[in-house]
Amino acid sequence: DKIPATLIPGDGIGPEITQSVVDILDALGSPFAWDSQLAGMAAMADGGDPLPLATIESIRRTGLALKGPLTTPVGGGFKSINVTLRKEFELFANLRPARTLIPGGRFENIDIVLVRENLEGFYAAMEHYMPLGHDAKAIAMSTGFNTRAECRRIVTYAFEYAVKNNRRKVTVVHKANILKALTGLFLEEGRAIAKEYEGRVEMNERIVDACAMQLVMDPWQFDVIVTTNLFGDILSDQIAGLVGGLGMAPGANIGTSGAIFEAVHGSAPDIAGKNVANPTAMLLSTALMLQHVGRHDLAARLDKAIDHTLTVAKVRTRDLGGEAGTREFTDAIRHHLA
Ligand code: NAI
Ligand code: MG
User: Signal peptide span per the entry (predicted)?
Assistant: First the structure.
């Protein structure tokens, strides 16, 4: 019996890279029965609602989704659907593993797993403007929050991940020197949880700005990183840059009763519809989804075919210096499925 799962093609390059996944999974013997649903700009254009009830109900039913990137208007417009979905299904952990797949780049042998708190911090911020004189928007206010319970839950998730995946170290990244309450609480819980894992998993601490520098100077010192929402968002794009760019970085949003898998990157409107998008991040997210449902066999075959295509056959998309289009690259992976 197939596993019911929601498929959201998304905006921009979303439909192209989602098609890659569907084609390759078909060739692999997909364990999923897709329920295709709309969200984001595509849903706006269809029915005027960026997050239709049918989409929410589908994910509630399946508890499992693969999602293409969604465009979020900057400034006004509607609120980020990504943030809304994470909240709606309480997907508290955002897992973003990054591994060097192509040798000979600026950085070799990178293998870092970033665990980002996904529900709180400045992404749950209450924002508003305050007037001064004639300027209605003279002052911009933002109030973020972190709860002790959520700090505990995300740090515990990172340490448990380390134990289960034979990782030796968890780095807690914060800015407790300045945001003494907001990220001080996170650090406090990080230290407390680390004690429970003493002797099994090493713990260290980094202030986020210094961490950003060290990620470039000596990324090999990092193993698992756990951090708050905003810092995690920024550092995960930086880490993607260490392994070849946003086209190579997969992600998973995980909760206790559901999971949504998606690439780290956005809808890339600059290259949408041109058959040049790199579907690797979306495919690696699919591999994470296969692992999540216990199909480690299929995940391994998919990972292997991606690896072979990139490093042995050397078929690569433009962002990796190659010439293959999205479709040609997809065909090559399909051809290399063992
Ligand atoms: P972006 O990640 O879409 O693109 C940044 C740069 O990376 C662009 O030059 C793009 O062409 C390139 N790029 C991204 N993915 C690529 C791929 N698979 N292959 C080749 N090149 C790739 O970030 P940007 O431009 O800041 O945001 C565009 C839109 O995406 C915004 O509306 C933003 O809100 C949304 N977004 C959505 C996310 C999601 O759905 N999870 C995550 C991040 C951004
Ligand atoms: Mg981001």
Answer: none
